[in-house]
């Protein structure tokens, strides 16, 4: 259903499938407590990062509900792998998708997450013909909320203590964009 041509190049970034050479880069950011703070998983040691990478290298196409495209985000100026960005087909029937992103803190605050995530919206709406794409986050994750706002997504919901994560009840915020909103942007 969706088999993008790689790499995907933007003004400052290249999005491409992960390779086994990305282990150091993935471990560098996913081992950090500040990165994992609002995610479901605990900071990853090298073995856990390897397990994740083994799955990520194959996440390059979407053929069925539940499939994920998970791409390495690299900087065009330095060639460094600085994070990952993803698109999930959450419902084939309802043509729904979800985006996500993680960047190394050394590269935060330059608009890179927004630039990379916009390409996931493009893939989802223009190529996969989705009707609606969401972003879900811990409601305290203001940087992530800002990324979704900058993408033009609407804050649709604030769920109160709907999840128990890392020993505490957490609120979840949901942002969304419809296909017609993407086309009119
Ligand atoms: C979310 C994340 C990817 C954002 O990356 P980024 O490259 O810094 O994003 P951008 O530069 O495109 O935009 C970040 C915006 O949030 C703002 N921001 C950053 N930290 C903030 C904070 N603590 N409080 C409020 N706003 C904040 C920035 O000022 C910027 O907005 P601006 O352009 O209006 O100034 C990054 O923080 C990250 O990797 N976090 C850890 C993983 C994670 O939580 N991923 C999201 C899961 S839902």
Summarize the structure.
Residues 13-181 form the N-acetyltransferase domain. With 185 residues, the protein is an alpha+beta fold.
Structural topology:
Layout lengths: L7 E2 L3 E5 L5 H8 L2 H4 L9 H11 L11 E8 L5 E11 L4 E8 L8 H16 L4 E7 L3 H9 L3 E12 L2 E11 H6 L1
Parallel strand pairs: 5-6
Antiparallel strand pairs: 1-2, 2-3, 3-4, 4-5, 6-8, 7-8
The site of coenzyme A (COA) has 21 residues, from strand 5, helix 4 and helix 5.
State the fourth-level CATH superfamily.
Gcn5-related N-acetyltransferase (GNAT)
Give the class-level CATH name.
Alpha Beta
The hetero molecules present are:
coenzyme A
Mean pLDDT: 98
CATH topology: Aminopeptidase
For the record, give the distance between the C-alpha atoms at the N and C termini, rounded to a whole number.
25 Å
Number of domains as seen in the coordinates: 1
Annotation field: number of helices: 6
Low-confidence stretches: none
Number of strands: 8
Give the key terms.
alpha+beta, 185 residues, RimJ/RimL family protein N-acetyltransferase, 6 helices, single chain, acyltransferase activity, transferring groups other than amino-acyl groups, 8-stranded mixed sheet, binds coenzyme A, Aminopeptidase, globular
